[in-house]
Amino acid sequence: MRNIAVMLIVFALGGCATIIEGSTQQITLNTNPSNASCAIYRQGLKIGEVAITPGAALIQKTKYDITILCVKAGYQQATYLNHSGAAGATFGNIVLGGLIGWGIDSATGSDNKYDSPVNVTLVPEQISPPVPAMPAPQLPQSLPGAVPFS
Predict the structure, then answer these.
(1) Kind and range of the H or E element at 60?
(2) Rounded distance, CA 149 to CA 128, Å?
(3) Quick one: pLDDT at residue 112?
(4) Separation between Cα atoms, residue 77 and residue 96, nearest integer Å
């Protein structure tokens, strides 16, 4: 009985999501086609990268969305906005841990999560074929049935 009471206190004071989910998250990135390079940005600052897809990056969780930018030669740059959402343990923490546990989770970012895996499709660059030169129109020297000017 005493062990159960101690565990409840630890969860309430420690923040349930902090203990269960942690303050970092691994984001797995897949691109079609593969072998692209992706960078992860939050509020304009680079916070992670995957040099060659598929791959993963470990990032700090916060309440702010992240933008994933992928590039590959011969393809247009592609972006994906990954919204920060509430982690599943957050709701249990509010019920069991009250405001103290939720406050700890919120301060550490543990009450947030991002989509993973993320799948990004790259579109081939459009290379315009050269426009063939059009020959100048040839006007006839005289039109049939035309009367010459005098």
Answers:
(1) strand 55-60
(2) 48
(3) 86
(4) 45
pLDDT tens-digit readout, 31-63: 999 999 999 999 999 999 999 999 999 999 998
If residue 120 lies in a helix (H) or strand (E), which one and from where to where?
A: strand 118-121
Domain map of the chain by residue range?
2-120
Share of the chain above pLDDT 90, in %: 47
Question: Contact, 4 vs 15, CB < 8 A?
Answer: no
Distance CA 109, CA 21 (A): 10
Burial of 120 (0-12, 13-18, 19+ CB in 10 A): middle
CA distance 94 to 130: 64
State the Cα–Cα distance between residues 104 and 122, nearest whole angstrom: 39
DSSP 49: E
Residue 54, preceding peptide bond in cis (omega within 30° of 0): yes
User: pTM score > 0.85 for this model?
Assistant: no
CATH number at 2-120? 2.60.40
CA distance 7 to 104: 17
For residues 51 and 95, give the distance between their C-alpha atoms in angstroms, rounded to a whole number.
41
Q: What is the pLDDT of residue 16?
A: 47
